[in-house]
Amino acid sequence: MHKVILDYAQEIEAHEIGLARVLARASRPDHAGRFNKAISLHEFIAEHAEAVASEMAVAQYFGIRNFKATLNTYKGQADVGSRIEVKWTKYDQGQLIVYEYDRPTDIAVLVTGEAPNYVIKGWIPIAMAQKPRYRHSKQPTWWVTQINLQPIENLRKSHYEQSAI
Questions:
Q1: Count of beta carbons in the 10 Å neighbourhood of residue 153
Q2: In terms of C-beta density within 10 A (0-12 exposed, 13-18 middle, 19 or more buried), how is residue 19 classed?
Q3: How does pLDDT run across 53-88, given as a tens digit for each residue?
Q4: What whole-number distance in Å separates Cα of residue 163 and Cα of residue 165?
């Protein structure tokens, strides 16, 4: 577990990119791929901004200078480095959620919190997360509890780091 605090400029950038992501795809909170459709457009944009901010927190943890969050790559490119898919939830005890369209060769990193305070909770290879034991019973997703994640510090010591950053 590692805490990251973003500064004002990073928060503004996260909001700008979050809004740009929504506008680039003309996304709406009630689109077919979402399970929680009961939020306003403002809340939806805020969720995108928080997701961008969590990507920034992971990049900052790994010392990636001049990190720029992507705008319209969706799942065609990693969020951070070459293989890191960042998963965000505002809930401190929240789970890492993996989707069918997540790339199995990537590493999923769970970040919790809300701007400007984030906590990197841990990581798991997506291929490992997409095992039957984590499959959600009512959605085409996999939910990995935090106890099943590797500490983020272990990623730096593993063979995954060199190929992921």
A1: 14
A2: middle
A3: 999 999 999 999 889 888 776 677 888 988 999 999
A4: 6
